[in-house]
């Protein structure tokens, strides 16, 4: 027993030293989407600020494909040493498991939450020619249309699509989903009058709304958006408890040492509490949400459970 205790005592300082020295080399942040979108831009901002605080460069590595599954799987299979992280997107982590027939990773089993970065507020907007100004008017108008009112989104199975299907289930609105290969194309078509409605992130629509080229209907956050404070929420518009945000956060591979998770979480929260960083995220339509890893993990678990029935009821599937 004495020899075992002596060996343990000899190893413990070395382990503590290894944890204290983290990070001792650059960290790779895998962004499972193409460069340029709001998700990618927010990841680059966080990587830049974390690099300053950690004293090591956090390098963004874009690995797009399969709605985020390819890059995310890469991180799930990486060594749990804190040097490979993934920018987690709600569409990939809590919606894809329900819409894809086969998944190469398990959201809860294969990852360790580091922390949530923030919530991206979603908004329903209309072409100005639509003869409806409020959500209740949109719902009533949809019920008079034989084919329903079309609403565009950035693609099948994304958070805006889920939000639209949830709205149909909750209100009986007669809405028809039109998936695009990106939010930009959907925005172009609603501006041109090819479709009457688009469900998208506030960041992608606020410029057109402020310019009067799009008509805002409602935002699906709990409170009004700071970017568009005059636009009511869905709850204010008569749909109780209707809150559907898109979120981004940081995940590490499962079994990453707790000391490393804690260090990353502490520095991430410091970044998110910085007024300048918060303002930059707000411009992107993202409200910073510093918090504990457990809180982020609980939210992922909750969203996995609540989106499953919506996906099943809408019959959404991606091969």
Features:
single chain, 319 residues, alpha/beta, 6-stranded mixed beta sheet, 19% strand
Question: What would you note in describing this structure?
Answer:
This protein is an alpha/beta fold. 44% of the residues lie in helices and 19% in strands. It is built from eleven helices and eleven strands. It has helices spanning 2-21, 38-54, 69-76, 90-99, 135-142, 159-171, 183-192, 202-210, 258-272, 275-283, 293-314; strands at 27-31, 58-62, 84-89, 111-120, 122-126, 149-153, 175-179, 197-201, 215-219, 246-253, 286-288. It has a six-stranded mixed beta sheet, sandwiched between helices. A five-stranded mixed beta sheet has the order 7-6-8-5-9, with helices on both faces. Strand 1, helix 2 (38-54) and strand 2 (58-62) form a beta-alpha-beta unit. Helix 2 (38-54) packs across helix 9 (258-272), helix 4 (90-99) runs parallel beside helix 11 (293-314) and helix 6 packs across helix 11 (293-314). The radius of gyration is 21 Å and the shape is globular. The termini are far apart. Residues 10-18 have low confidence and may be disordered.
The number of helical elements comes to 11
What is the overall shape? Answer: globular
Rg (CA only): 21 Å
Strand content: 15-25%
Low-pLDDT sequence parts: 10-18
| Class per helix and strand makeup | alpha/beta
- Average pLDDT, rounded to a whole number, is 91
For the sheet with most strands, the description reads:
6 strands, mixed
The succession of helices and strands, N to C, reads: HEHEHEHEEHEHEHEHEEHHEH
How far is it from the N-terminal to the C-terminal residue, by CA? 57 Å
């Amino acid at each position: 027993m004495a020899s075992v205790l002596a060996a343990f005592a000899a190893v413990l300082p070395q382990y503590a030293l290894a944890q204290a020295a983290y990070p001792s080399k650059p960290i790779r942040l895998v962004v499972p989407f193409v460069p340029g979108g709001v998700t990618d831009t927010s990841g680059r901002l966080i990587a830049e600020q974390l690099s300053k605080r950690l004293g090591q460069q956090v390098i963004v590595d874009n690995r797009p494909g399969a709605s985020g599954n390819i890059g995310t799987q890469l991180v799930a299979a990486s060594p749990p040493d804190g040097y490979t992280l993934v920018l987690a997107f709600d569409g990939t982590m809590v919606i894809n498991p329900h819409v894809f027939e086969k998944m190469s990773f398990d959201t809860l089993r294969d990852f360790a939450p580091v922390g949530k970065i923030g919530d991206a507020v979603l908004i329903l907007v209309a072409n100005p020619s639509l003869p409806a100004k409020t959500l209740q008017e949109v719902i009533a108008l949809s019920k008079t249309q034989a084919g329903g009112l079309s609403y565009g989104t950035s693609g099948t199975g994304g958070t805006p699509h889920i939000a639209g299907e949830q709205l149909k289930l909750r209100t009986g609105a007669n809405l028809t989903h039109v998936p695009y290969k990106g939010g930009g194309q959907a925005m172009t078509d609603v501006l041109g009058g090819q479709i009457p409605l688009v469900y998208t992130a506030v960041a992608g629509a606020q410029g057109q709304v402020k310019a009067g080229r799009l008509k805002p209907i409602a935002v699906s956050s709990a409170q009004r958006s700071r970017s568009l404070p005059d636009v009511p929420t869905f709850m204010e518009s008569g749909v109780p408890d209707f809150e559907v945000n898109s979120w981004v956060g940081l995940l590490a591979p499962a079994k990453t040492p707790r000391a490393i998770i804690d260090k990353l979480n502490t520095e991430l929260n410091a970044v998110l509490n910085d007024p300048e960083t918060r303002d930059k995220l707000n411009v992107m339509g993202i409200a910073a949400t510093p918090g504990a890893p457990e809180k982020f993990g609980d939210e992922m678990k909750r969203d996995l459970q609540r989106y499953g029935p919506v996906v099943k009821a809408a019959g959404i599937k991606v091969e």
